[in-house]
Amino acid sequence: MTVGLFGGSFNPPHAGHLLVSEIALRTLGLDRLWWMVTPGNPLKSRRELKPLADRIAESERLARDPRIVVTAFEKSFGEAYTARVLARLKAIRPGVRFVWIMGADNLKSFHHWQDWQRIARTYPIAVIDRPGSTLSYLSSKMAQRFDEARVDESDARALARMRPPAWTFIHGPRSSLSSTAIRAAGSAR
């Protein structure tokens, strides 16, 4: 089985998350895509974060595709950092081929994540294009550090079977929606 792992706060989930999911499912040939709804993000303020149960319920209402599974196992693992969660997941599911999915907007700050290089050496990574991030990904530290591991987008379907580090940048339709903008619009009312 090939599973995409799409982590985030989903605060709130929106059609842009669905678009990234659809692109990943189709382009990578995934069997499933797990939305990893995080209890919190060490790089972001918790002030505006809705309760985890609310974000999970909202995500489940939005993600109607049966291939998309909303999860919160990060909380059950008791880990706050993606690298630790992913290492544990790989250990308990050794027969599953996982691909880490991230928006290009997150690639710019990926080098600030704890053990980001370990993530890149443990999981193939698919970076999905986002508005305003198409060209900036080239200058990201991750793209520079793992330049030789970049896989052409035309070979993206094989990414899950490649030995990490391996990553690709996937172009396609882009949504300008963002959880930050949605929250800001809601507080402006």
From TrEMBL:
<keyword id="KW-0808">Transferase</keyword>
<dbReference type="InterPro" id="IPR005248">
    <property type="entry name" value="NadD/NMNAT"/>
</dbReference>
<dbReference type="GO" id="GO:0009435">
    <property type="term" value="P:NAD+ biosynthetic process"/>
</dbReference>
<comment type="similarity">
    <text>Belongs to the NadD family.</text>
</comment>
<dbReference type="GO" id="GO:0005524">
    <property type="term" value="F:ATP binding"/>
</dbReference>
<comment type="pathway">
    <text>Cofactor biosynthesis; NAD(+) biosynthesis; deamido-NAD(+) from nicotinate D-ribonucleotide: step 1/1.</text>
</comment>
<keyword id="KW-0520">NAD</keyword>
<dbReference type="InterPro" id="IPR004821">
    <property type="entry name" value="Cyt_trans-like"/>
</dbReference>
<dbReference type="Pfam" id="PF01467">
    <property type="entry name" value="CTP_transf_like"/>
</dbReference>
<keyword id="KW-0548">Nucleotidyltransferase</keyword>
<dbReference type="GO" id="GO:0004515">
    <property type="term" value="F:nicotinate-nucleotide adenylyltransferase activity"/>
</dbReference>
<keyword id="KW-0547">Nucleotide-binding</keyword>
<protein>
    <recommendedName>
        <fullName>Probable nicotinate-nucleotide adenylyltransferase</fullName>
        <ecNumber>2.7.7.18</ecNumber>
    </recommendedName>
</protein>
<keyword id="KW-0662">Pyridine nucleotide biosynthesis</keyword>
<dbReference type="InterPro" id="IPR014729">
    <property type="entry name" value="Rossmann-like_a/b/a_fold"/>
</dbReference>
<comment type="function">
    <text>Catalyzes the reversible adenylation of nicotinate mononucleotide (NaMN) to nicotinic acid adenine dinucleotide (NaAD).</text>
</comment>
<feature type="domain" description="Cytidyltransferase-like">
    <location>
        <begin position="5"/>
        <end position="184"/>
    </location>
</feature>
<keyword id="KW-0067">ATP-binding</keyword>
